[in-house]
């Protein structure tokens, strides 16, 4: 008869510091199909090491091991996993059941890795447990079972895929005498059915129940005895008749099992899972929050720029910002504005002069900046008239004493809620009639927080300041015209009119681009800091998963013993890591979204742009 297991010159060395300890020394052994063999020896004799090698859980340092004539050393890791899964069944001293699974699920595991049909494997697992007297314990977890019951579940798991060879490591070591006798009787029954049984034990009474006893001492076989038997079973156990799925369905089934185990593991260690997620939550919240707030800030800044004037170019006297001679440059005049308004690029043009005066309305007085502007000022700067009308070209030509005020001025000068339209106020000593109220918008410069009053620029020049020149001219460029081209044409036109370049241009698009670029740079910088925190969180997940793997080596060993591939183990832990990152990422996004909404609400409450409910829209003056 051909041996089912044959080893020759089997040696196993283990490093011990600078030395090497030889645990097995040239073992020669043949085990026939259907034998019930007991390997006995004292602690440290090498019997457990021999069993691990026979079960393909360990590899010999030297020598050969053949299973059914196949050299084990030539098999790849996945082929060894298939050998354990399809031919071996393991019974451990401490049962080694997975605590997160019930009895039925523990028994099913080998069939899961074998790719068995879910319905068929569930029927077989139930049948094995009922055969072993555990029909009423199918849904009980290991902690709810007695020692003997747990060991029977372990036996059922060993038989799930057939269990051609059953390896039992001290199977009665954790059982009382009654449960031990019942287990040995069960093993004898399985042997009679044709299973090859290999028992590793130090108990002579257990070894005496085997057909063959092999004694190991100091890594060598010192005695090999057989009982006188009329017949040694020579039939191998029949393979389990469990239908297998197709490759794709088998892969999906194993993935589903890995996903379920990952969820159970995360649920069983909630605090550790949360602490692992915490780094991801903080990192994601930082990245999302910083990017969102950066974009929101950029949008707010651009909106504020638009409040000054969208697509505008302002002509100012002097050579540039900080030019001390600018106040003495008196060459900008109204005719320059008229000439610019006649150009193709001009959508609208508004001259400007300004003066700081005391505004008086009845008994209320306040400091204000009076701005002399053209009739197109509100179109140039994109301001809305909330009530009343703005002044016209006729008002500018006739130097009419009319004014448009903003909401801030309206509420300051008329605190009792009086409708300001038609009221007369004093700008210094010059009386003017209010004909319109414009919205208050957030803007830059000294006028951003003061009262604003707009009157025709001709009125300011002749009745208030007495000057004959302008402080500036603002040109709104047509939407279909290139701003840079318009800027060049403005510069050329005014240089030709003045005979020199005694002015400079401020392009709102240049300001917009500069602020946008600066905002993007700052957002990128802060985002990089946030990404570093996310990276730290990822490293934290990696470290925790490494600790988790170290803590669960026993579980990994059990899964490998029942036929799990290395890829199956890797997939389970990868799924756990991915789930931790996904859940942590979702929580981080939710947290960041809440913070961003809160910040946006707070920003909205603090905005300077508001409409007074006391101001009634009136039709524009013809």
Summarize the structure.
This protein is of the alpha/beta class and 622 residues long.
The proportion of strand residues reads: 15-25%
Rough shape?
Answer: rod-shaped
**What does the radius of gyration come to?**
45 Å
Number of strands: 20
Number of discrete helical segments: 18
Quick tags:
single chain; 622 residues; six-stranded mixed β-barrel
Describe this structure in words.
- The structure is a single chain.
- This protein has 622 residues and is of the alpha/beta class.
- Helices cover 45% and strands 22% of the residues.
- The protein is built from 18 helices and 20 strands.
- A six-stranded mixed beta sheet has the order 6-7-8-3-9-10, sandwiched between helices. It has a six-stranded mixed β-barrel with strand order 12-13-18-15-17-16.
- Strand 9 and strand 10 form a beta hairpin.
- The longest helix is centred in the C-terminal third of the chain and has 44 residues.
- The radius of gyration is 45 Å and the shape is rod-shaped.
- The C terminus is likely disordered.
